[in-house]
């Protein structure tokens, strides 16, 4: 018993000695933490006091894991933009600093996913797999890190690829009134990137949930979600989420660009983004300017779109192409936000409601649309036909307006109008039906060669499909040259035109139709001698004289 008690005592002594050493070595460390309190809550914002060290754009946390961004940093209080549901927040609730800015999960794990600007999944497929985060607000690449735009981004839409080309690394604005097909052009462009090694990011800002669901369903049905990330804010989301949405989507796109990949990003649309920023600014008591927008409304869009670029080869050679969308009111492209974005971007695609009502879809107004950068990136085969086509189409639009006044038109004018009508009919294109490069060039060459001019207007659609189907007969070597930057040789042009002429042979009018009016012209010479025989009795009188006047004289 004594042996056992002594051994137990030694164990206790050892344990207590160890505890004593740990207790002596332990020093209490105090971690300072700034805690503030809510003084007021409004629609999408909160006023907080008691955070003297908070920085601009710093992330703060509210009860219920609601995040906010410090937007107004004043001496006594800060104005915070809320990034979630805020109905449970009340004055007096605790607010804590995080010491970091807003960031976004990036990487290949986001491909095929539908997420919100906070990185939370919206598609019900579990959490997003990502091990890397990037700040939402990042500086644009400096000029020395950029390279010229030299590679085209094919949209699959004939009128855009031929007349308003877009290059990889360009910023091309899409603007027009409501329901004129702006989103359809963007979705068609995403669909056409299949197999082109281009990653797409579709950012829906303040859109109806049904419209977003329809767009996602279309992308999924066509197999485009394999290379697409969808960032969504719905119309009933807080304005803070709408405000950070395009910046978060751009950070996702930049991560792919910095990895050396080509990226396409669509902002649908920045009108809702500007309105959300206006709402936040007015609630935070920032002074309003033109159309009640704050003075830095231009800056929030310029710093966003400046992040779209083409990096030099030393940095991977990746590119980020931006297609921002803007909604105009009553075709007024000189309003505040549209003119801001027109001056920021490298060109615009204007959609006309008049053309939309006529059924000329896509309703692109070629006269008001321009691409300031993409022309140099356009394939040489397009450049060979685009100049003549654009000139002929512009002449047609002017003469068509003139002909509506009922004026008599000469033969050449009627020919220009008929040729222009066939250009317009061939440039029509249904939704979700992108056209390949060889098919586009074959149709455009047939147009410039006036092969469609003898085809009746009601058969133009079938005739165009016949030309597109005949592209399979073009030799493989010629088709490869169409995809390169080489100029279109006369031999290749002749080969394509010959194939197009064969495919259009069955649409040409039969020669018998031209021979029918010949018998009607025979009676005309018989009537002339009868008319000339009347003045025979008046000898020596001039042929143009009036017989009655001569008798009186």
Oligomer class = single chain
| Ends distance | 171 Å
Number of helices: 19
- Biggest sheet features: 8 strands, mixed
SS-derived structural category: alpha/beta
Uncertain runs are 520-553
Indicate the overall shape: elongated
Specify Rg, calculated over alpha carbons: 35 Å
- Roughly how much helix do the residues carry, as a percent range? 25-40%
Overall mean confidence score, pLDDT: 88
Question: Largest beta sheet: what is the strand line-up?
Answer: 8-12-11-13-14-10-15-16
Question: How many runs of DSSP E, i.e. beta strands?
Answer: 16
- Binned strand content: 15-25%
Could you list some keywords that capture this structure?
single chain, 553 residues, alpha/beta, 8-stranded mixed β-sheet, 6-stranded antiparallel β-barrel, elongated, disordered C terminus
Overview of the molecule:
The chain is of the alpha/beta class. It is about 40% helix and about 15% strand. It has helices at about 1-25, 160-165, 180-190, 210-220, 240-260, 270-285, 295-305, 335-345, 355-360, 375, 380-405, 410-425, 435-450, 460-470, 475-480, 490-505, 510-515, 525-535, 545-550, and strands at about 35-40, 45-50, 60, 65-75, 75-80, 95-100, 105, 115, 130-135, 175, 200-205, 230-235, 260-270, 320-325, 345-350, 370. The strands form three sheets. Strands 8-12-11-13-14-10-15-16 form an eight-stranded mixed β-sheet, with helices on both faces. It starts with a helix and ends with a helix.
